[in-house]
């Protein structure tokens, strides 16, 4: 496999596009369905948050299993289980949605880890950031049309079309998943002692390893904001004159896709900590959240609302590939899979908290107050990204 845009890698990206298509529809339909059934924001947040909370818990274990079994075998098993979860959505209510979200979250823990680790191991260092960015790009493409499709299904009142859509995604993902190949997956089977040490000591490195600690905190804070946007925009948009959740989410996703493709070569892939670069992304997160907060109370709020969608898309497009690529250089080779799994788990935890924790806050106050707090979190993220002494940059250079 040569080059991030070679055909074998394009097949992996296509598989990620198909896999995440269902979630782009469910992210809009579940809040709307829950609201129509009288569920509170807290209940909707818990259902939505169950997906990535489960993913977070299983990330480190996924790293171990992938190291032992190889990414291809894991991917094929997970695709079958995920198909069963998607079918479950078609004939159950909110209780069934909660279980399906958990099952889907478990599948995503293994699916995304297998693809990302396979890409990292197969690509040369200089193209590593491009590979991660392109994977994230294709995983985001469904969010361009998914919200529009979901709103169309909901407004039609015909949930039969929803069932057929889920079934089509299951079939297409299965066909794509069982035909892929990943060369040089670096499969190994560590002994029991090595596995125990890696598994238990890895958790302590969340705060003892300075690289992992800083990146994890930044990603956690940002993901709380991302999760709050994804979960509650379908409901908050109704408070904005002429506001449309489908347009917002489509603009956000379209910006993510464009930024990840056209800016992929701008993402650092040298193992150095670029504090100014990360701080700029954090301030974009803050500006976007503030725009969402005030768009419901000012004249011309619809324009500001949609500008915020584009800003949020830019920050989402750049932050995750930047931090993941940096960690792939500076983390120790032994146990790197597990440590990367822990980092990605922090992103999952943040998105889950964006629904589960921000839902009760919105119930107690309002959506505007909740998004104002998200803006403050963006500023906090910028402060945490600042590296006054340049320790992370110099250390990363030595390690790489």
TrEMBL record:
Topology class, membrane: Multi-pass membrane protein
CDD domains for the chain: MFS_YfcJ_like (cd17489)
InterPro entries cross-referenced by the UniProt entry: MFS (IPR011701), MFS_dom (IPR020846), MFS_Exporter (IPR052714), MFS_trans_sf (IPR036259)
Compartments where found: Cell membrane
Superkingdom classification of source: Bacteria
Keywords: Membrane, Transmembrane, Transmembrane helix, Transport
Primary location recorded for the protein, binned into one broad class: membrane
Gene Ontology MF terms: transmembrane transporter activity
Keyword Zinc-finger: no
Membrane-traversing stretches: 12-32, 44-62, 74-92, 98-120, 132-155, 161-180, 211-233, 245-263, 275-299, 305-331, 338-358, 364-384
Keyword Transmembrane set for record: yes
Major facilitator superfamily (MFS) profile domain span: 8-393
GO CC entries: plasma membrane
PANTHER family: PERMEASE, QUINOLENE RESISTANCE PROTEIN NORA
NCBIfam families xrefs: opine_export_Sa
Protein known as: Predicted arabinose efflux permease, MFS family
Gene source species: Paenibacillus catalpae
């Amino acid at each position: 496999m040569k080059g991030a845009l070679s055909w074998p890698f394009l097949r992996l990206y296509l598989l990620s596009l198909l896999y995440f298509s269902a979630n782009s529809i469910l992210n809009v339909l579940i809040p709307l369905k829950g609201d129509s059934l009288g569920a509170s924001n807290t209940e909707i947040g818990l259902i939505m948050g169950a997906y990535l909370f489960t993913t977070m818990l299983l990330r480190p274990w996924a790293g171990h299993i992938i190291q032992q079994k190889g990414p291809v075998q894991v991917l094929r098993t997970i695709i079958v289980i995920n198909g069963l979860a998607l079918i479950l959505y078609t004939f159950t209510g909110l209780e069934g949605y909660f279980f399906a979200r958990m099952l889907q979250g478990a599948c995503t823990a293994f699916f995304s880890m297998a693809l990302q680790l396979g890409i990292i191991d197969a690509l040369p260092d200089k193209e590593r950031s491009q590979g991660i960015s392109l994977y994230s790009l294709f995983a985001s493409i469904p969010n361009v049309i998914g919200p529009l499709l979901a709103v169309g299904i909901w407004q039609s009142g015909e949930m039969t079309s929803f069932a057929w859509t889920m079934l089509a995604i299951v079939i297409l993902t299965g066909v794509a998943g069982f035909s892929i190949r990943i060369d040089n997956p670096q499969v190994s089977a560590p002994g029991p002692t090595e596995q125990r040490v890696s598994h238990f000591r890895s958790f302590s490195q969340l705060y003892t390893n300075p690289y992992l600690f800083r990146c994890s905190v930044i990603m956690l804070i940002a993901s709380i904001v991302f999760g709050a946007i994804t979960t509650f925009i379908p409901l908050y948009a109704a408070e904005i004159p002429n506001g449309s959740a489908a347009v917002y989410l489509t603009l956000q996703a379209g910006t993510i896709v464009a930024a990840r493709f056209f800016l992929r070569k701008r993402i650092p892939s040298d193992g150095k900590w670029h504090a100014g670069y990360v701080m700029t992304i954090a301030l974009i997160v803050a500006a976007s959240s503030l725009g969402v907060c005030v768009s419901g109370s000012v004249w011309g709020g619809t324009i500001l609302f949609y500008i915020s969608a584009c800003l949020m898309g830019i920050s989402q497009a750049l932050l995750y590939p930047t931090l993941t690529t940096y960690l792939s250089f500076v983390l120790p080779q032994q146990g790197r899979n597990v440590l990367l799994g822990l980092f990605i788990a922090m992103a999952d935890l943040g998105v889950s908290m964006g629904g589960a924790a921000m839902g009760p806050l919105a119930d107690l106050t309002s959506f505007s107050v909740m998004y104002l707090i998200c803006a403050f979190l963006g500023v906090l993220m910028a402060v945490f990204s600042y590296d006054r002494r340049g320790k992370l940059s110099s250390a990363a250079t030595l390690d790489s």
